[in-house]
Amino acid sequence: MLTRTVIAAALVAAGIAATPSSAYAASAAYTPERICGHGFKRVSDGHRAMKTRDGAVFGHVYLMYSKRSGKNCVAAIKTAYTGTRTVTGAYLEVRGGGRTEDVQKYRYYAETGHVDGSWKCVRYAGWTRDPGNRVEAWGGRKTWGNCDG
């Protein structure tokens, strides 16, 4: 009887320790594919960590592309301060084309929307801040790339 009680207590403790926080579980449910929508895929050289000056990672930014529509999308997904509304932004610029930016206080991610970009070079970025609005983490590509449609 004592053995069963000890095993049950160990299993309960392990179950509690293995349960992620609700904020983590909610942020893990967001993928760039889900955020940008059906048909969007991650592109080569289209992922950057959003890092502070000290190298702390607050999230990741993804450049996405849909061959079917010829459109690009950027998703900036937080991994720090998830569930808390902090300034979070996503930016996408198409050479010779459109430019879009989304900046608000978000709990999990920011997304640019869809911009025509077939056979055009793009640059992109994502950023987020701490709740005190003092530390910013940035990631992206300042140079033109992904020009092959």
Topology:
Elements: H1 2-18, H2 22-28, H3 32-36, E1 41-51, E2 57-66, E3 71-78, E4 86-94, E5 99-106, E6 109-111, E7 115-116, E8 122-129, E9 136-145
Antiparallel strand pairs: 1-2, 2-3, 3-6, 3-7, 4-5, 4-8, 8-9
List keywords for this structure.
149 residues, alpha+beta, five-stranded antiparallel sheet, four-stranded antiparallel sheet, 3 helices, 9 strands, 19% helix, disordered N terminus
Sketch the major β-sheet.
Answer: 5 strands, antiparallel
Radius of gyration: 19 Å
Are there runs of 5+ residues with pLDDT below 50, and where? 1-26
The helicity comes to: 10-25%
Give the beta-strand count.
Answer: 9
Structure class? alpha+beta
Gross morphology? globular
Order of helices and strands: HHHEEEEEEEEE
Please give the count of helices.
3
Q: N-to-C terminal Cα separation, in Å?
A: 67 Å
Mean of all residue-level pLDDT scores? 85
Instruction: Give the oligomeric state of the chains in this entry, treating copies of one chain as homo and distinct chains as hetero.
Output: single chain
